[in-house]
């Protein structure tokens, strides 16, 4: 193995640049050449490929987004698309790849490995919804952005004694809501993994008000329902002077937190080591503070489990 | 004059606490006693009034919101409400007041002055829509929060070559949009004070894309239309992979910027000096870097003018 | 057990307020009464003790420092001091305690337990130098503050092609330096746990410059030597236009990161659960993402081990 | 005039990139070609000059530092150096220049104008020490960074009832200290423009302590004396558990505030307009919210005057 390629795929996440940097530097340190592939699998197929030097990844670790750009490219699910990609790998003499992205990106990684091009997947998504990893690259930053917003809403909630319904990202998983809810001091956290009863919540808000709770925040995972709809449901049970806020795409951007940078750096270096060991078709994770890897095939049969102890914790300390 | 009262009214704004601190400390420094009134005019009428010491306003300058709480209280437009308020002022021996809030709060200030209780108004609103002042308390912080969000959206816009329509606050005035647009490097700024043609904008976006502009942000003042509606209109003219984001109430909160803290401190101290001079019925402003005051009556006949040179500047440097 | 007390001791750390909030709320949720003790062991001895309600810990989770104040109080090492403290516990009817602080605070916790007052210790220190816990409360925030500063120094280092020697906190342990170094993209990390040779470092800086590395940052743990002394040593081997910067006490303050808030909340609730189980003399930790506890006695025989894999990682990816 | 050049000189300041962007985009908008000159006057003499496109300045407005790099180059004071620079201008066909930097940079701008190359100076320095402008590019960001640090020190100062002596930047001018002091809620501000008596200050600190003031911050302009020396002097008069902190070069970096970005954008566009009007030898400023220009020659006879009303304001509201 002499040359490796690297691409980012699916939704962008803070820390992707830190991962690209680590992959690039580690590979160069081990005597490999590195090629960047723009726009994910779309760029692979189109041959949008260029050599990456140590210098190219300088001053990148602190930047949000991905400087290799990302794109969704469902066509790579077809053999035709894959063969076009492999043609490009041959043309550029690339022997193996690192792919940073979400669940969907791993399918392509598996196909490339099957075609003889060892490919390692790194979990880059703010949603934290990938199996066999406690944390994904970008999750800590997204939580941090959400909590920063919740802190600001607390100021105005306190001043006006309002109730805010804050919709945070996480289509299928409640992780962002759970972490942002506990860290933001939310009155209630609503996640897809737990049932809820709006009437009961309205009752709690009412009692909270009566006990002098001035700054009530309800954190809602987007996978459950829309904030505006939740607010409307809530308003049926009383006048809570409530407001709905959707944090939205802001959560995808921003300079990655130190935790995300360190995680991305560790995972990126580890991916190169796996390739050097002749491995492929693996997804890198962090489990119990250790960097691990699992067969991508196994991931498809598994489901990420959020830390629901946070839900129960919040119930007992949000008063 | 021995005792002054202070209240915050209308929508809360970052820097209100800094203003309360400055009023309190300056007044105590000049030998006065100070009383805080909770919940604006509603609290005045209800007698929710308590003595404020220098210590009470310690560790407050950096906090968002208002620790005196705020509320809208239309009933204070009636003489009945005013007389109840005056009864409370008599009861607590308060001779004069400082009121921090938006346009609406100034009506109450004028009525109290007419009843013999000199009252000075400070412009506390993130909208910057008050006449006779270049800047209101809270505006700089709101712009800062909006620009921070736009910077984050730039990350993800660049990574995916998306177009974002970002709705910022400012019902009647385009100030937040103008400042956040220029500072955020927006492609376009849409404000109530200037006409626009969505078809032309779509054309510009299309051309920008063709010239390689990867991170297009359109900043939209909420007074013009909803971001989601704007996006739908835009989408009629092409596929821009556009997204709508509403920054919302987050812009009201957060630790005030140094500029807002300094402005609030200067204005707060000045308000006390005006009261000591036996003045009332005045609104404090900052014009050409100098703290000034104007008859509140004159404000009602005037209209705030945003700095539209920012609009033209942006047209020439957003490429 | 009906009443528990809580105090913070030693150097303050971001997240202490989140821990106090969690202890208070969990205890109240379980039917206990809670008393806050100001100024650590000094306040215990002096009887500076007051009841804490759920309301008292509202709007605290996001605040840096500790609203119970902290103090060093070596006199508590003597039996005399301890007995005075116990007298106060009797007076206020407090049966058990939670103590948040560093290593030193645990001695007092052990003594109180020996005297029959079950006491649980929580690791509150930015240094991360406590055995049997992967992370202490405050560490993530301190790293975040340090990295924020390093990012800013990168801007000016790049603009002027300067070398910065940045001294970060951590007297006995290199943890802050290791994390901030990797996350900050440092050229070199200097920690007490690893030898270094300034002449070799000077050589590396020289070679880095020649290869076009414009923004060199050397992160130095304060336990090794002073930044100014390091800079002087470095300057003996060449003209690197170097500057020394000591981040200092800024690293102790600031709003805690979500990670610190969640950690503090989990640990605080867990401490109450241990007391309810009739346990004492234990130190709470987080190991492999699980909240754990160990005999404080065992801690005294152990030594915290930083994650030195970060050192090696940085050597291979800092170019 | 067909081609203009742009360089940054002296100490870097946040907002320089925003100014470069505005100059470049405005010039291109007006049909000019733009050349970037790296490393200030040193790069001009060395011919480190390259064409700048609209794309080159994309995604720059939010970055700290200067992507054209900066350097001090005293040799440009000599005619010999100037003639070498002019040779390069001829070679690249550059007719006029914009120079962003501090006081020193303006001498070069004047000399180039005298040689027939109209040059406009923009005030880029965090110190705010330039005559005929109320604010320099970078000042607002530096104050913001300083206040952020002071807020963090407040947390730990409150928790431990310590006194912090915080040294902020500003060699010859007290502006950063005055703004950061008022905005940071400092107990005292020490600037070169006002005398002070350490004994009296110690007395004030003592009295403050007795009145319950827990978080005392003394903000010291670096031009007065070193924080460590001040602390030592202070300690002669009592035990204040004081700490000295030097904020240092961190104040030079970081993403520019919206205010700095807007100011830099306005000034950059205006500089191009002046060149198009055939003007040179002028320094751009902002006075009373209006963008203005003055003969550079007049600047050399003038002295910047800080807003000392802030000093008096702080005396009356810091209790």
UniProtKB/TrEMBL annotation, chains A, B, C, D:
Carries keyword tRNA-binding? no
Q: Name one GO cellular component term.
A: 6-phosphofructokinase complex
Key words, A-Z: Allosteric enzyme, ATP-binding, Cytoplasm, Glycolysis, Kinase, Magnesium, Metal-binding, Nucleotide-binding, Transferase
Q: What is its EC number?
A: 2.7.1.11
Report the main location listed first in the record. cytoplasm
Pathway membership of this protein?
Carbohydrate degradation; glycolysis; D-glyceraldehyde 3-phosphate and glycerone phosphate from D-glucose: step 3/4
Q: Which residues bind ATP?
A: 11, 72-73, 102-105
The Phosphofructokinase domain sits at: 3-275
Query: Which metal ions or organic cofactors does this protein require, according to UniProt?
Result: Mg(2+)
PROSITE patterns, A to Z: PHOSPHOFRUCTOKINASE (PS00433)
Q: Which residues participate directly in catalysis?
A: 127
Q: Where in the cell is it found?
A: Cytoplasm
Q: According to the UniProt record, what class of enzyme is this?
A: transferase
The answer on whether this UniProt entry bears the keyword Metal-binding reads yes
- Which InterPro entries did the record assign? ATP_PFK, ATP_PFK_prok-type, PFKA_ATP_prok, Phosphofructokinase_CS, Phosphofructokinase_dom, PKF_sf
Protein role = Catalyzes the phosphorylation of D-fructose 6-phosphate to fructose 1,6-bisphosphate by ATP, the first committing step of glycolysis.
Q: Which HAMAP family match?
A: Phosphofructokinase_I_B1 (MF_00339)
Q: What is the protein's quaternary organization?
A: Homotetramer.
As for family, the record states: Belongs to the phosphofructokinase type A (PFKA) family. ATP-dependent PFK group I subfamily. Prokaryotic clade 'B1' sub-subfamily.
- Identification of the protein by name: ATP-dependent 6-phosphofructokinase
Q: What is the lineage of its organism?
A: Bacteria, Bacillati, Bacillota, Bacilli, Lactobacillales
């Amino acid at each position: 193995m002499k040359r490796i390629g690297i691409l980012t795929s699916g939704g962008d996440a803070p820390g992707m640049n830190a991962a690209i940097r680590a992959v690039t530097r580690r590979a160069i340190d081990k005597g490999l050449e590195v090629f960047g592939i723009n726009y994910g699998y779309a760029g692979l197929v189109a041959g949008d490929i260029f050599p990456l030097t140590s210098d190219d990844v300088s001053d990148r670790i602190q930047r949000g987004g991905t400087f290799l750009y990302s794109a969704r490219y469902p066509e790579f699910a077809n053999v035709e698309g894959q063969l076009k990609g492999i043609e490009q790998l041959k043309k550029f003499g690339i022997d193996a790849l690192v792919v940073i992205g979400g669940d969907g990106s791993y399918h392509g990684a598996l196909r490339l490995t099957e075609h003889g091009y060892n490919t390692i997947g790194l979990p880059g998504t703010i949603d934290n919804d990938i199996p066999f990893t406690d944390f994904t690259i970008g999750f800590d930053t997204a939580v941090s952005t959400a909590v920063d917003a919740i802190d600001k809403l607390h100021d105005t909630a306190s001043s006006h004694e309002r109730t805010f319904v804050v919709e945070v990202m996480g289509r299928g998983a409640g992780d962002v809501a759970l972490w942002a809810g506990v860290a933001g001091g939310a009155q209630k956290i609503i996640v897809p993994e737990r049932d809820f009863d709006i009437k009961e919540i309205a009752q709690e808000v009412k009692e909270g008000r009566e006990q002098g709770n001035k700054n009530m925040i309800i954190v809602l995972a987007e996978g459950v329902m829309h904030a505006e709809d939740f607010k409307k449901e809530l308003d049926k049970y009383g006048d809570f002077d409530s407001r709905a806020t959707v944090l939205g795409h802001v959560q995808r951007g921003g300079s990655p937190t130190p935790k995300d940078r360190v995680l991305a750096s560790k995972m990126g270096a580890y991916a190169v080591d796996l390739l050097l060991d002749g491995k492929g078709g693996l997804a890198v994770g962090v489990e119990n503070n250790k960097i691990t890897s699992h067969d991508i095939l196994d991931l498809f049969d598994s489901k990420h489990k959020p830390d629901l102890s946070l839900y129960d914790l919040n119930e007992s300390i949000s008063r």
